[in-house]
Write a structure and sequence with these properties.
This protein is mainly α. The protein is built from eight helices and no strands. It is 65% helix and 0% strand.
């Protein structure tokens, strides 16, 4: 019952555009997104270097990746390690957004473009709101669809109450 009530209220808010301030326009969102993409790419590289270095050390002390041409092949083709490695990469990116949204309401890119995400209940987002925001962002589709909304907001904003 709670989920149905929540869904109805969220859809009503989506359609009625209640008194929440207008969000950032598409160009500013994309500027911040591109800036964050560069930062995340650097962070992901460091995270991957840590994994590769750990496997290289393990190989030096006797771990075998026989049947694979190199560490990259092992990380992408092994039936157990590959899904864990992919999950690790996604968790690193999720931690980036969760940390910055919950801590200051801004990622590095958002700060450069003078954007901030705030809770409809005032203040920074909670951990749950950041997870909802990431889950409903649809890998950026939510930002693209803001072009069609008069308040420059879309489902990631409505569902996370941000």
């Amino acid at each position: 019952m709670f989920i149905l009530t929540y869904w109805i209220n969220t859809c009503r808010n989506l359609l009625l555009h209640n008194s929440v301030p207008k969000g950032a326009n598409f160009a500013r969102r994309m500027g911040a997104w591109l800036y964050d993409l560069l930062v995340i790419a650097a962070i992901e590289r460091l995270a991957i270097i840590i994994v590769i270095s750990g496997i290289e050390i393990a190989i030096q002390i006797g771990f075998s990746i026989e049947g694979y041409t190199d560490i990259s092949d092992y990380l992408t083709r092994d039936p157990i390690i590959s899904p864990l490695f992919i999950a690790y990469v996604f968790i690193v990116a999720a931690f980036f957004y969760t940390y910055f949204w919950a801590r200051a309401g801004q990622t590095v890119g958002m700060k450069a473009w003078k954007l901030q995400v705030i809770s409809e209940f005032d203040g920074n987002l909670t951990f749950a709101q950041t997870l909802i925001r990431m889950a409903t962002a649809c890998l950026g589709l939510g930002n693209i669809l803001t072009v069609f909304n008069s308040n420059n907001r879309f489902f990631l904003n409505y569902f996370s109450h941000s």
